[in-house]
From TrEMBL:
Residues 36-209 form the Metallo-beta-lactamase domain. It holds the Pfam family Lactamase_B. This is MBL fold metallo-hydrolase. It comes from Novosphingobium organovorum. PANTHER family: ENDORIBONUCLEASE LACTB2. SUPFAM superfamilies: Metallo-hydrolase/oxidoreductase (SSF56281). CDD domains: metallo-hydrolase-like_MBL-fold (cd16278).
């Protein structure tokens, strides 16, 4: 996908995107992050929460602090700990005294080929939210939803007062999410998508990358269908003799920027692992074959 011209993006400029919600865009555009990581400020009263403070970039940190104005920062919330999401938490906490509340810490030496290479090793939450736990401030309540798949520690946050859901990288407004083993898990990702589809109270999604999702259930239904179509495509590829992941990707992702082939390969691998669990395929060293019914 062609990225928009960075000069046209509102970096370091707060935008009101919904009731009680402002958005700040970090200047870290890439083929993996689209126009950059979107940080959200939740609340319009005496205190606010920040969701996904983004990279530890001085321009972005100053923009967050400026956007706070006279309000107290009550919580710094992270959906997960990839390096484009959580590194800004520590310096923002140091400057404001706000606690870091949200996903659990998670560090792997290798999470496959990504633009940001790895998890954030310096993330230290003051409080880990489990599924269904909430935190609140002046006129706002955020409830954590465990949505593993993209990462095992991924959370979404529901703003109870408005029906908004902050979806991090689980559901993005511009692309499907990379699911990269060993931590990324396609079985868990599909179950998390199905869970969101059942939540009829969510009327709008605010993702960490890409535009606001104004028809969330329609999008999630399409994403579930897309993943099932990928499964069928993989099975056809194996039947056609393309038994290695690196052979499947160019045939399956025609027109995709080749810089994204390694990441696409990780999602294909995640699908294959899911299919193997369901006894539909079997791994034979670096190749795969379809099991007979």
């Amino acid at each position: 996908m062609q990225l928009p011209d960075p000069s046209e993006r509102p970096y370091a400029t707060p935008e009101i995107v919904g009731p009680k919600v402002r958005r700040l865009l970090a200047r870290n555009p890439s083929p993996f992050t689209y126009t950059g990581t979107q940080t959200y400020l939740v609340g319009d009263g005496t205190d606010v929460a920040v969701i996904d403070p983004g990279p530890a970039d001085e321009e972005h940190l100053r923009a967050i602090l400026d956007a706070l104005g006279d309000a107290r920062l009550a919580a710094i919330c992270c959906t997960h700990t990839h390096r484009d999401h959580s590194p800004g938490a520590a310096p923002l906490a140091a400057r404001t005294g706000a606690p870091v509340i949200g996903c659990a810490a998670l560090t792997l030496a290798d999470d496959g080929p990504r633009a940001d290479a790895a998890f954030d090793p310096d993330y230290r939450p003051d409080r880990v939210l489990t599924d269904g736990e909430s935190l609140s401030g002046d006129g706002w309540t955020l409830t954590a939803l465990a949505t593993p798949g993209h990462t095992s520690n991924h959370l979404c946050f529901a703003l109870e007062e408005t029906g908004a859901l902050f979806t991090g990288d689980h559901v993005m407004g511009w692309s499907t999410s990379v699911v990269s083993p060993p931590d990324g898990d396609m079985s868990a990702y599909l179950a998390s998508l199905a869970r969101l589809y059942e939540r009829k109270q969510d009327t709008v999604y605010f993702p960490a990358h890409g535009p606001v999702v104004e028809k969330p259930h329609q999008l999630v239904r399409g994403m579930l269908g897309h993943r099932r179509a990928r499964e069928r495509q993989i099975l056809r590829q194996i039947a056609a003799g393309h038994t290695r992941v690196e052979e499947m990707v160019p045939a399956m992702y025609k027109g995709l920027d080749e810089r994204l082939f390694p990441a696409a390969g990780r999602s294909v691998l995640a699908h294959l692992i899911d299919l193997e669990r369901r006894a539909m395929v079997r791994r034979e060293e670096e190749t795969w074959r379809v099991l007979e019914e």
